[in-house]
Amino acid sequence: MTLAAASHGFLTPSGVEIAFLLVGLVTLGAAVVTVTTRQLVHAALWLVVALGGTAVEYLLLTAEFIAWVQVLIYVGSVVVLLLFGLMLTKAPIGRSPDADSGNRWAAVAVAAASAVALVWVVVDAFRATWIELGTPQGSTETTGRSLFQYWVLPFEALSVLLLAALVGAIVLSRKGDTAITGDGGTPPGPGPGTPPAPGGTAPVARAATGPVATPGPAPREEQR
Amino acid sequence: MHLVYPAVLAALLFCTGLYGVLARRNAILVLMSVELMLNAVNLNLVAFDAWLRDTLHAGQALTLFTIAVAAAEIGIGLAIVLLVHRHRGISDIDRLRDLADTPGTPDADATDQQPQPDTKAEATA
């Protein structure tokens, strides 16, 4: 600790620890409120506090680039996606009494038991271990160098994974769209809806020229 | 900095997320709890990377990968939840029991047929 204090300078290590402890308390409290509140939108907003607190912890651990990536991706996009999901599933705005399921006390027991076990093991294992935070570990230059020198292949594989996830999300939401327009387009107007279908190769032609050739679903598509 | 601080915080965050996954009923709240668990793992990775001073920075690279995979997971998960909500009108994971085993009865099909038809009708409609 004294060595880290000598090399660090403006913040004594106990100061870093105190800051880490305070931010950790805020983060943990926000996380607990996130999983216990009965207002669904408030849960998403408290999740912002928890994720932002984790970003501050990354900054205190001198992982600067990861902290900003955390702010960008989690706070910027994941929480917004979750809020969109809450709105699109028509989540109740006020207090919803059935936010917790029936096995709540079993969940409390499991979480408390695992917390006690994990904290005990971790404290017992790392009782005499200190992190020396003298030199920053995760500046943008360091992270970029290590990422593009040693981790290029996983990085590219990750981009393929992201592309697959993107295509998968589009297919998941689009298949529902075509199924709904296909099923919803034929029952109201059986007259104009059915004649184009039996003509020729059904699935391929419908997949290729579906919204253009069939006169029935086309205005529905335009309305959306 | 003592290594115990980030390790204990990560353990407690993980257990909070574990409670949320087990106790929540709405599928989107379960996804939020999964995000909390992933964050706890990321905090552990960053702390141990700062402790071990790895020359490859494996912990931070893996943290970046985890963040990207979590973003992909949340996208796919929300797409599935929205699809289920569009077909069934519900997003409560307690009530999505089409694949559930009813305990005690050897053939679950015969007992499941009674509550099934309205949900099947909703699914096909």
Automatic annotation (TrEMBL), chain B:
Positions of the UniProt region annotated as Disordered: 97-125
Domain of life (superkingdom): Bacteria
Broadest EC class assigned to this enzyme: translocase
Catalytic activity, as annotated: a quinone + NADH + 5 H(+)(in) = a quinol + NAD(+) + 4 H(+)(out)
Spans traversing the lipid bilayer: 61-84
Pfam families: Oxidored_q2 (PF00420)
Keyword Cytoplasm: no
GO annotation, cellular component aspect: NADH dehydrogenase complex; plasma membrane
EC number per UniProt: 7.1.1.-
Membrane topology (UniProt): Multi-pass membrane protein
UniProt KW keywords: Cell membrane, Membrane, NAD, Oxidoreductase, Quinone, Translocase, Transmembrane, Transmembrane helix, Transport
Entry-linked InterPro entries: NADH_UbQ_OxRdtase_chain4L/K (IPR001133), NUOK/Mnh_C1-like (IPR039428)
GO function term, MF aspect, one: NADH dehydrogenase (quinone) (non-electrogenic) activity
Comp. bias (Low complexity): 101-118
Example GO BP: ATP synthesis coupled electron transport
Major localization class: membrane
Location(s) in or outside the cell: Cell membrane; Membrane
Transport among keywords: yes
Role, per record: NDH-1 shuttles electrons from NADH, via FMN and iron-sulfur (Fe-S) centers, to quinones in the respiratory chain. The immediate electron acceptor for the enzyme in this species is believed to be a menaquinone. Couples the redox reaction to proton translocation (for every two electrons transferred, four hydrogen ions are translocated across the cytoplasmic membrane), and thus conserves the redox energy in a proton gradient.
Family: Belongs to the complex I subunit 4L family.
Subunit structure: NDH-1 is composed of 14 different subunits. Subunits NuoA, H, J, K, L, M, N constitute the membrane sector of the complex.
NCBIfam families: PRK05715.1-2 (NF004320)
Protein name: NADH-quinone oxidoreductase subunit K
The encoding gene: nuoK
